[in-house]
Write a structure and sequence with these properties.
- The structure holds 2 protein chains of 2 kinds.
- Chain A is mainly β.
- Chain A has strands spanning 4-7, 10-14, 19-25, 30-38, 45-51, 56-59, 62-67, 72-77, 86-94, 100-101, 105-110.
- In chain A, a hairpin with a 5-residue loop joins β9 and β10 (100-101).
- The radius of gyration of chain A is 13 Å and the shape is globular.
- Chain A starts with a strand and ends with a strand.
- The mean pLDDT of chain A is 95.
- Helix content of chain B is 0%, strand content 58%.
- In chain B, a hairpin with a 2-residue loop joins β7 and β8.
- The model of chain B has no long low-confidence stretch (mean pLDDT 93).
- The chains are: A mainly beta, B mainly beta.
- The interface between A and B is medium-sized, with 19 and 17 residues.
Chain lengths: 111, 111
């Protein structure tokens, strides 16, 4: 089955700086890669996703890049703000099968 | 628009007691439904998923079971809870079988 590794497990950045979270996946047939943000005690919320026919997708301060050859994808958050502090999860899916999640990254924005 | 409900929001149960958690989805037909468990400070573990009424796939052998008696209703049950069943239980739905949206969750504490 699919295996997703996520790094780093914790990340602290100064407010206004950029944050990057990286994930690698094992199944080259995976073609859908969402990112979720989970604030303390809340449900995971989808923030951005990308499909394998696209190399990059951007939504305001958030962007995701996908390298199919290397089997890795990354979340980029620019101009970080205190409300970006949360746990972020990446995931991968092959066709219409199950989502496999990474282990999460706890992002802390330092004011 | 679609909404997903879960209840109860919090639950404290003694070891050995039964469990019933309910999830309902509004505003869509024939959704795919999922049950996840998240231990404190950990990632998301898929427990069950369903592509239709009466169709349940189990991911992890355990003392939990799931049922889907109606198109938009998904129930998670146990006959006898264990301490290790404590966690944050999340129901999720999807229509296209890729993008999944999570419910508000049930926080279960087994004492």
């Amino acid at each position: 089955g699919e295996n997703v590794e996520q790094h780093p497990s914790t990340l602290s950045v100064q407010e206004g700086d950029s944050a990057v979270i990286k994930c690698t996946y094992s199944d080259s047939a995976s073609n859908y890669f969402p990112w979720y943000k989970q604030e303390l005690g809340k449900r995971p919320q989808l923030i951005i996703d990308i499909r394998s026919n696209v190399g990059e997708k951007k939504d305001q301060r958030i962007a995701v890049t996908l390298n199919k050859t290397a089997k890795h994808f990354s979340l980029h958050i620019t101009e970080t703000q205190p409300e970006d502090s949360a746990v972020y999860f990446c995931a991968a899916m092959r066709g219409n099968e199950k989502l496999t999640f990474g282990t999460g990254t706890r992002l802390t924005i330092i004011p | 628009s679609q909404t997903i409900h879960q209840w109860p929001a919090t639950l404290v149960q003694p070891v050995g007691s039964p469990l019933s958690l309910e999830c309902t989805v509004e505003g869509t037909s024939n959704p795919n439904l999922y049950w996840y468990r998240q231990a404190a400070g950990r990632g998301l573990q898929l427990l069950f998923y369903s592509v239709g009424i009466g169709q349940i796939s189990s991911e992890v052998p355990q003392n939990l079971s799931a049922s889907r008696p109606q198109d938009r209703q998904f129930i998670l049950s146990s006959k006898k809870l264990l301490l290790s069943d404590s966690g944050f239980y999340l129901c999720a739905w999807s229509v296209s079988r890729d993008t999944q949206y999570f419910g508000p969750g049930t926080r279960l504490t087994v004492l």
